[in-house]
Amino acid sequence: RKEVEQDPGPFNVPEGATVAFNCTYSNSASQSFFWYRQDCRKEPKLLMSVYSSGNEDGRFTAQLNRASQYISLLIRDSKLSDSATYLCVVRDNDYKLSFGAGTTVTVRA
Amino acid sequence: GAVVSQHPSRVICKSGTSVKIECRSLDFQATTMFWYRQFPKQSLMLMATSNEGSKATYEQGVEKDKFLINHASLTLSTLTVTSAHPEDSSFYICSATPSGASYNEQFFGPGTRLTVL
Lengths: 109, 117
Description:
Strand content of chain B: over 45%
Largest sheet of chain B: 7 strands, mixed
Largest sheet of chain A: 6 strands, mixed
Mean pLDDT of chain A: 93
Number of strands of chain B: 11
Distance between the termini of chain B: 37 Å
Oligomer: heterodimer
Largest interface: A-B, 22 and 21 residues
Shape of chain A: globular
Order of helices and strands of chain B: EEEEEEEEEEE
Shape of chain B: globular
Radius of gyration of chain A: 13 Å
Mean pLDDT of chain B: 92
Distance between the termini of chain A: 37 Å
Structural class of chain A: mainly beta
Low-confidence stretches of chain B: none
Number of helices of chain B: 0
């Protein structure tokens, strides 16, 4: 079983729409959680950390459910520039990051 | 902000040759750097953890004699793919954590796309 699993998508949405997707992780002892964004053929970039109480950063809202071991990301008022692959990332109780394979979002005009 | 560079950004080589990839932290010192590999439509997979002044720690299934890592200074780690074969073609990405910082802070290099013919 993969450590981090994501729906690969793609999610095709019109500009202005709301899109949400989840990932699940297998290690209940995982310590830290993140969403990264990766554009085609580029390196991943940190979008936001995910906190237990849930957190928001502008149009992006992340939620963590430790009991069910899943993390969600919601994007409101989608922009064309939001088109990317979103990587769910988990850090266990050491220094290693485990990456999901990514969820592809395409925002169309 | 913290910047990590990689060189080269792209390399095409013949089967059997060795390729060296450099990862540099430009504005901070990094005791620890990480090397990842990403195949198309797959997740980043950690290959090894590079520790300045000591041997790298390799993940299960990664051959240390094939992927040589050297972390000779606090700003530079190198990955050498020895006797590269077409199946080694991939996107290699490094990341670095500033010395003394939380491991939550990992800054990624722009990646090196290796194509082995």
